[in-house]
Amino acid sequence: MYRMRKLSLFLSIAMLLQFAMPGWSASQTVTAAPGGPIVTSFFPAKNLDSVPVRTNLRLTFDENVKTGASSTSIYIYKTENNALVEKIGVTSGRVSISGNQATITPSYSSLGGRLELDTEYFVLIDQGAFVNDSNGASYTGIQDATTWRFRTVLVEDNTRPLHTFRSPEGQDISITSAINISFNKPVYVASGDIVLESSEDNRYIPVTSSSVTGSGTSSITITPDGALMPKTTYRVRISGSNIQDASGNAFAGMNWTFTTGEAPVNLASSNPFTPAKNDTLVPTGTELTIRFDKQVQANANRYIEIRRVSDNVTIQRILATSTAVRLDSNSNSATIRPSTLAPNTAYYVWIEPGAFSRPNPNASQWFYGISSATVWNFTTGFGNDTTPPNVTTYSPVRGGTLSNVNGKLTLTFNKDVYLNSGDIEIRHSNSGTLFRSIPITSTRVKGAGTKELTIDATSHVSSSDAAKSFVNNTRYYVTIGNRAIRDGAGNFFAGISGNGGWSFMVTQDDKKPNLVSLTPVNGANVVDVNDTFKATFDKPVMASTDPGKQIRFVTKVQEGYRTIVASYYVDPKDNKSIIIEPGRFALSLDTRYFVNIDEGAITDLVGNDFSGILNEYQWSFLTRGADKTPPVISSSDVAGSTIRLIYNEPLKEDLKPSPASFYVTVAGLPRNVTGVKVEGNIVFVTLASNVAVNQKVTLSYTQPNNPQIRDLSDNAAGNLNNISITNGASNTSPVISSARASGTTVSMRFSEDLMKPHAYAYSQFTVNVGGINYSANSLTHNGSTIELKLFSSIPSGQQVRISYSPISYPLVGVSGNSVSSFSSFLANAGSGGGGSGGTTGAPQVQSVSASGNMVSIRYNRALNTTTTPGAFQFSVQADNQSRSVSNVNLSGDSIILTLSSTISNPSTMRVSYYGSSSTTKDIYGNAAASFNNLSITSGSGGNTGSISMIGAILKGNLLTISFNETLDPSYVPSNSFFLVRIKDMVRLVTGVQVAGSTVILTLDSAAKVGEKAEVSYLSNSNGLRSIAGNTVNVFNNANVANQTTILDSLSGDYEAADGGGVGILPSAANASSDTSPAGVSANRYTLVSEKFIAAVTTSRDAGLTSPRIVFKVPDFENAALVAVPVIALEMASRQGGDVTFVVQHGDATFELPLKTLNFSELSRALGGNSSTNHLLMAIDKGNSSKTQPLMTALNSSSATIIAGPVNYEVLVVNGSNKQEVTNFNGYVSRTLKTSSSVNESQSAVVWLDPITGTLSYVPTNFKNEGGWTKATFKRQGNSAYALVRNTKSFNDMGKHWSSDTVQMMARKFIVEGRTASNYEPDKPITRGEFATYIAKGLGLAGNRTAAAKFKDVNADTVMGAYIGAAASAGIVNGTSSTAFKPNNFITRQEMAAMMMRAAKVTGMSVSLPSSADSYLQKYTDRNKVSSYAKTNMAEAVYLGIINGKTNTTLSPTTNASRAEGAVMIMRMLEKAEFLTQ
């Protein structure tokens, strides 16, 4: 059915011209119809003759489409007898969609793979076979045999098209010339790029782009985008995939060269630029002048750009014809006036081709432009800077602490600084005695030319300038002369003078780690034999690597003692805790053990030893088995269809009671039990239907032969006989109601009786005594009371606050509801340590004041904030009229009343309070007395000019609140008028500062990254107010923007790293001369252990489970050499988490997960140990002996280099000895960045496998970042790598359904053809081929040794080596222990098994959400899947790696084709994020 549209005369003529073009039908100009997509053209065109016998079918629609219902099909019929040639389901895999184009690839299997010669065919299409992408509306289909018919060729054309002419060739070719190729027959563009390359200018021109014209004729024209470079030899490369004739015969391809001549306009032969190329100290307001060899004019719509060298950012884009560009009187030079440039910055000039040209009428004769960053570049000077440099950061801070007796001092300035003359002196603060005088030009001072100077006052420089450490616990001060340091403009730093300018205390941590808590606690009973044992300390710790340092479990036996040596390691979730494992079932039931810890088995991060436990009393426990009392029910209830049986102790959750053991009646009638589940101390019994309110429910339970309700000591619960179930479960959580503290005991009473708590439940409590956290070591329970035993006694008169945060062992009430968390609950302080006990007597009112709608009642001591009185207990009168109280808050020593309205200038105000014994109390539990008609001091009264908070920001322990007016600095409220909550827990305010329009609160501890924060402010007469006298409005629970970063906890030697994580600056490393693996001289940067460990520890404390620590090598280094002590890496790794150390050098990075290192081997290497050995990471860029083999192989291949080559290497170093590290326990990532255009389907990182001598793929992913392309690639070893582009193609892929994937996999050096030009996609793939392609796809190195175990594999071949690699990795197995049968065709189920094993090598973890059978259920031949491959086949189907051969058949024993093999490997690599296409 045709839709007629009214067309303009112009469009009609255009359509007539199109009718005349071979291979195409008329195109209708249409709009997207709500009724469905409309076909705008057919291929072959309607009624077309001479159609190739192997043609594909193609429909072009008026909008993007997708395939419709799976039940719809396309049909091809023979016209003369209406015989069906082929039926093609739209979801069969032979129909592909690309935007608005649908391509149908028939098999023509009934005709031997091709249509008959000189025969007419027609095509029908079911309605709904295609639908709109936009609204899902269906295509109407084709039901008429005359709509789409065509006739095949009389004689099949099997000859390739030949070229008869090409241009340009030879010398002196115009830089604006087009490329023309004539053929002996009409040809069509197919796929790929035409390559135009030279030594400096490489262009890839897609054949489908607008730069390529003439498709369908016998002449193809390629018009490059922009002028060519003058006097340059170009090579034109036409590949076999670029062009074909109407029968699909591919042009064989060719390449030739030509050389361009002089450009019509060139740069002047001398002094073409002002400022000159590479000029420095260029004034920031300079004009730029370019000179030509001829007169020129500026042309419209062409641009000049000033770009910054450091990041290629365009600073200014100037139209060539704008007033910012001026031609001189002779018109042979142009002056560009940019806006003022930044000082001390490198720039380059980019000029668009054609921005300048010969004057009219010769404007087509262009100046070719400037596209390189190195043609016209310069660096600005320091400008008109007259401001001297200032110090922005001191490290250690002034008056602060240096934590290492050999630590370095750091000054950070507001600009780059340089060294001049004079000395730095460090003296003892007490006596003024000189510690060391350091000439400013000494090697002890590093960082000139940067913003940061590092002063090394302690290390060895020479025999006359020997090492000397600071004295611990000693204060020093630093002086620096006023001519020692200057900026680039010659302004001098004022210096530091006197003993108060920069002083610091040296305090190195020499304290041993102290034990804080034990899990299980000392004296614990009923400890499970497979329980987790944990020792927690007061600082981060690490486990010794010395096998002689042991932790042992010891028990007394008749013969003496029996000892179990345990393994131990740092808790991955808490670096202050050590996990101790005696071994599964190593402990015996009903046995008392004590734990011994050798001195030095555990140390802190600076090496101080824990003294150990070498007695049998400090940590002893009894394993379960002693408890013989069965669990009993404490309560029960029913809600809906669920009955809860609540027992008095935790039960075994892994047991599964049978519903058959229970009998339930509801209102006297039986009710079926459908399920039973055990959780904690509760048995959940599920009924077949809901229970109505007030219905009587009874339950009986009979203990089976193997009881399934047991406590943790294996005691079985007894029978239940017709017990009544409470109808209606409570959802109210128990809460703390009171607490007392005395001596070493803290007693808490809760609102209901509690279930028997876990022995370790004490670890969830924090007891704060006078601002210091005390630790509990045990817990006892009786009804609604919990008693904690503390390690230390509470001093008398101290305020005690209790916090509870349930983690693994929550407290549970008899109702089955968990106790809610609470924070800073105030306990009544009893007598402690023989002291006199708490303060007695009622608190007394000190003052009463009012401001606006707020009344403040201040007492003589702090109040208990957990007993807030009600609003009804207060009466407020203003001028003898009652004012209602809407809210009551307690803050510190005051009660804040909020009135329902503001009081306007009253003459008298009075307040009364009606107290009781249970309301207002002080922190010691003393109740406040009632009072009547106390006079109120009036504040600002009706002043309505109040100011409001406009925002709050938290960074570390500083919370800054901003207001809309400047504040009066004489009104600074006390800490108690602010309430800060972080993660819903109160954080104490220790300081308040008013500055301008902000209030800065200092908290007692810093917030962590990402924690939720809120702040409240309760005003009083002495509260915040503006300069104008306006009061600050009260606010409650205002959201705070937590901008805390990891770097807020670090200073001096750290920065934010590119790509995330903590960057360590060169100032945290010692530089020494060294030679890279490629023989390049460069500085080796050896990181200071403490700096590296501090970065990891701070990241872990911030909650990061995968810390990323980055060292950026200075750009001036010719190679990257970065060393870290092995002991520092091991200490960091032992803290837990997935720590990665990254070395960055320019556009290359080397990312090393510490979990891939074998620290035992690294420590033993070169006869050293973990203290003497260092891990050295090296990056060498460019051509060298390390990269030469790779370059030789690339030069002999079809690939071109985009970035690289780069050699990455890891070595272990001991002094001057080095040894390469070749064994990694996983993949190691590297990255390369390039500003070049990257076609991801044609590009990959490759390496030269030294075993096979062939180029091979490295798993590569691409990501675009700010105009750059970043290639991330990973392997398990060291090597040289390069990012390359490869346009290789096979002649036999044509329109094959797998063409795009196969060509892409070949271009990435993963798959190979059977010959150099043919892939043979439909031929079966062999076991050897498939194993080879998987190994190369994973970046594995060949393994001839592993291959040699198979007698039928030639280990000396490339395929043999990769079979060995796949076998060594556990991906493939032999058909027997000595045979692999590499030439046997592989079945689809064998492929599935190999691919899922390969997925595990990549680190993928596949877990089927349901059974394997469920994923194979829809396939009728599922029973043909062998048992060994069943799970793997289901996993492959689940992941979409393997699809059915049809909708209902899987064909597991069918041989797979080479096309299927490539596609399935591609899908597996994509799922593993090992490939981007």
Largest sheet: 9 strands, mixed
Strand content: 35-45%
Bin the helical content: under 10%
* Number of separate domains: 11
Report the count of strand segments.
Answer: 104
Oligomeric state of the chains present here: single chain
Q: If helices are DSSP runs of H or I spanning 4 or more residues, what is the number of helices?
A: 13
**Approximate shape:** globular
Query: Measured on Cα atoms, how large is the radius of gyration?
Result: 41 Å
What are the low-pLDDT stretches, counting only 5+ consecutive residues below 50? Answer: 1-33, 829-838, 939-944
Give the arrangement of secondary structure elements.
Blueprint: H1 9-19, E1 39-43, E2 48-51, E3 57-61, E4 65-67, E5 73-78, E6 83-89, E7 95-98, E8 101-104, E9 120-125, E10 130-132, E11 149-152, E12 163-167, E13 170-173, E14 179-183, E15 187-189, E16 193-197, E17 203-206, E18 212-213, E19 219-222, E20 233-238, E21 243-245, E22 254-260, E23 273-274, E24 279-282, E25 288-291, E26 297-298, E27 303-308, E28 314-319, E29 325-327, E30 333-336, E31 346-351, E32 356-357, E33 377-380, E34 391-395, E35 400-402, E36 409-413, E37 417-419, E38 423-428, E39 434-439, E40 445-446, E41 452-455, E42 474-480, E43 485-487, E44 503-506, E45 515-519, E46 524-527, E47 533-537, E48 541-543, E49 551-557, E50 560-571, E51 574-581, E52 592-597, E53 602-604, E54 620-623, E55 633-639, E56 642-647, E57 662-666, E58 669-671, E59 673-679, E60 682-687, E61 697-701, E62 720-727, E63 736-742, E64 745-750, E65 765-769, E66 772-774, E67 776-782, E68 785-790, E69 800-804, E70 822-829, E71 845-851, E72 854-859, E73 874-878, E74 881-883, E75 885-891, E76 894-899, E77 909-913, E78 931-935, E79 937-938, ...
Parallel strand pairs: 2-11, 13-22, 24-33, 35-44, 46-54, 55-62, 63-70, 71-79, 80-87, 89-92, 91-93, 92-94
Antiparallel strand pairs: 1-3, 3-8, 4-10, 5-6, 5-9, 7-8, 9-11, 12-14, 14-19, 15-21, 16-17, 16-20, 18-19, 20-22, 23-25, 25-30, 26-32, 27-28, 27-31, 29-30, 31-33, 34-36, 36-41, 37-43, 38-39, 38-42, 40-41, 42-44, 45-47, 47-51, 48-53, 49-50, 49-52, 50-51, 52-54, 55-56, 56-60, 57-58, 57-61, 59-60, ...
Helix pairs in contact: 2-3, 6-13, 7-9, 7-13, 10-12, 10-13
Keywords: Signal
Organism: Paenibacillus paeoniae
Domain SLH: 1285-1345, 1346-1409, 1416-1477
